Amino acid sequence: MNASPLTQSIRLNNGVPMPVLGLGVWKTKSGKECKDALHWAFEAGIRHVDTARIYGNEEDVGTAVRESAIPRKDLFITTKLWNGDQKEARKHLELSLRNLGMDYVDLYLIHFPIASTRKQAWKELEKAYKDGLAKSIGVSNYTVPHLEEILSHAEIVPAINQVEFHPFLNQTELSRKCSEHGIVLEAYSPLAHGKRISDPKLVRLAEKYRKTPAQILIRWAIDKGFVVIPKSVRKERIRENSEVFDFALTSEDLAEMETWNENFRTCWDPTGA
Ligand SMILES: NC(=O)c1ccc[n+]([C@@H]2O[C@H](COP(=O)([O-])OP(=O)(O)OC[C@H]3O[C@@H](n4cnc5c(N)ncnc54)[C@H](OP(=O)(O)O)[C@@H]3O)[C@@H](O)[C@H]2O)c1
């Protein structure tokens, strides 16, 4: 096991530190594929894993954690409440904990803002937080109007809003809204799901820094103050994606990347939900 974990973290609005880089496991197959990915991530120093009930691999995440022998307190594990389960959030968090074989998660998120159930679900998450089942709670796929709604009734302000974010989908108004309210933005699909890795502008920048396009995209998110969770099931890419703490993008290059936005979305669009 790597003796030097990647420790760069960001403090959430409840004081809890969250590692800025994690491993995403959406579309990572249950079984060997998932366990190997976590093993390689831990080897590369990653201590943060992003799963969800709907990914079907919570049990594998739990097994890989136990096999790693890394103390639980040194890990940051996120899972999410699936849409159809929002009416019984507590029950489903407890089920996720059983799947994971853990007595708490570090972060529990409402996966998607379902209009009829999201308010009720947040109340349940607040209770679960107070009871210690989740060390932090947050939301995912919330747009500005969704945030305004939750802020109007929440007793606890979400610690995180996990949304699709990369230079080709640079949601400046949403990111401003999050920072105004002390909500950390967590960038999902930070590699645009692999679809823009050969973009010539990105490749040129990667050559300039002697880094790979994926590393530039991950570093962009970190330099913007986000948490970032690239997914890979390949050992060499997991390592590559972790080697992003030995450089930073210049303010000129960050400014140039601000012009790359195309509202290019690779995952679901929560606008109007
Ligand atoms: N809350 C939500 O609604 C939501 C939605 C989407 C995603 N997420 C979270 O965000 C995580 C990441 O998003 P994502 O999985 O959609 O996409 P992503 O991380 O943007 O991209 C993953 C894709 O890029 C490839 N890849 C990984 N590293 C690479 C590298 N260094 N060079 C070239 N290609 C590379 C992967 O292939 P290989 O695996 O073959 O390497 C995979 O096809 C998910 O796993 C999940 O945890 C959350």
Automatic annotation (TrEMBL):
Transmembrane segments: none annotated. Residues 21-259 form the NADP-dependent oxidoreductase domain. It comes from the Bacteria. This is Aldo/keto reductase. Substrate binds at H111. It comes from Leptospira fluminis. InterPro entries: AKR, Aldo/ket_reductase_CS, NAD(P)_OxRdtase_dom_sf, NADP_OxRdtase_dom. The keyword NADP applies. Belongs to the aldo/keto reductase family.
